Amino acid sequence: MEGLWGTGWGAALSTGTPALHCPTRCVCASNILSCSQAALSSVPAALPRFTAVLDLSHNNISRLRADWAPGRLAHLHALLLAHNGLAFVSTEAFAHVPHLRHLDLSSNRLRALEENLFSDLPELEVLLLYNNEISAVDRSAFDNLGRLRKLYLGRNHIARFPLELLHDGSRPAQLSLLDLSSNRLRSLPAAELQALPAWLRDRLYLHGNPLGCDCPLFQLVARGRHRRLSAVMDFQEELRCQLPAAPGRAPVAILELGSRELLNCSEAREAVLEAYLGDSVTLGCDSRLRAAHGRHWVTPEGDKVTEEGGNGSAAMLANGSLQLRALRPEDGGMYACRVSGPAFNETLYVELLVHNFTLHGPHDGLNTAYTTLVGCILSVVLVLIYLYLTPCRCCCRAAEKPAAPPRDDSLNSSVLSATPNHAVGEPPPPPRPRIAGHHAAPGGQNGRYKAGGSPPMAAAVGALREGPLAQRKVSDPDSVSSVFSDTPIVV
């Protein structure tokens, strides 16, 4: 309290003697002015110009206008306005106190933070806005707060996460604590929050919000527990969420979402880096200590890498990261970053997996061989399908009804068939006796008789001599000529 109140507070209270230029109903001690619980409805008009700490808490000051101070208070560095029912603050209210470092507006009735509300406070370090009714936060409300270290926005009605407070470029450069607990946040930008440095996530308070349960939220909190971040370790019971499938059910602990009965979320691996032979990688040392006294790395072989130099392929950068060049298989393993600070020491582990091939090397040939193998297997399958699944030509036709034999003297006889025209099993006609002196009628075609002719006796006698080969039935004179005839086919 000495830094906030100064050294003369106790002496003034012990003597009870009113200080010079001290307003009515206030207690003054050196450069400290306390008007707390004085039933004030406005700021006292006669404020000493040398006032460094002004306590106006627990009063009835509902509006803070631009002219609340009689003049410029160049020495004021702490202003306390908590528990006043304050509902309005002018955007020019802090123009007279440019060196303010501590501002307490907590436990009031503020509903919105207007544009550039605090832009006249470039030296502000601590801003307390908790326990108000704030539901709207302008994106430029905290512009020009380059030295802001702690921002308390808990116990309000904020439904939109103010991501601009955390992005590089728009985030106050010195911000190390952001309290958004007990608001109305239903979702969080888990990926963006996970990318923040550990020293900022260490004191990013999000408990007490009606968050919806999902696996990215579980992984964000689980990683915080793995790193033993204060915002997670100190408020594990208050970090709860609402299951989407059971809106009427009581909120469940976020760290229980990995169970099978809930969402069965898998916990993401922490600090695992994959690389290939010949690559150059940088291992980050994401410590909770923002201002470290000392830092060094220990390789898997036990070698120590300090800021002064490396061991050839490893070198430590100015930001504490370890750079590895031209990776070899033996470079894989667990690396340890050891950080020492004023309050505690911390050791971080980063696992490096080095694949035993280059990014554009042998594994491309492996992919080609795999594709060739798949093509060969597919070809074999297609051949088997063709052999065994095509329609059969023999066995499937065994059960078919045989076609009726062609009628004798029919024109439907096949000109290519080598089978006899009579039906199977029909006895051949009896041979006719040969008549002596009988000669074949002239005009035959290739041994065939013309229509109206009778079979010669010589053919009958020849049939007796030649056996079954001569038992073929003679074609009808009106039938189609044999395909072996020397003359054209005549119907």
UniProtKB/TrEMBL annotation:
Q: Membrane-spanning residues where?
A: 369-389
Q: What GO cellular-component annotations does this UniProt entry give?
A: plasma membrane
Which segments constitute the Ig-like domain?
Answer: 251-349
Which superkingdom does the taxonomy of this entry point to?
Eukaryota
Q: Which Gene3D superfamilies match?
A: Immunoglobulins (2.60.40.10), Ribonuclease Inhibitor (3.80.10.10)
Q: Which InterPro entries match?
A: Ig-like_dom (IPR007110), Ig-like_dom_sf (IPR036179), Ig-like_fold (IPR013783), Ig_sub (IPR003599), Ig_sub2 (IPR003598), Immunoglobulin_dom (IPR013151), Leu-rich_rpt (IPR001611), Leu-rich_rpt_typical-subtyp (IPR003591)
Q: Would you tell me the protein name for this molecule?
A: Adhesion molecule with Ig like domain 1
From the broadest rank down, the organism's phylogenetic lineage runs: Eukaryota, Metazoa, Chordata, Craniata, Vertebrata
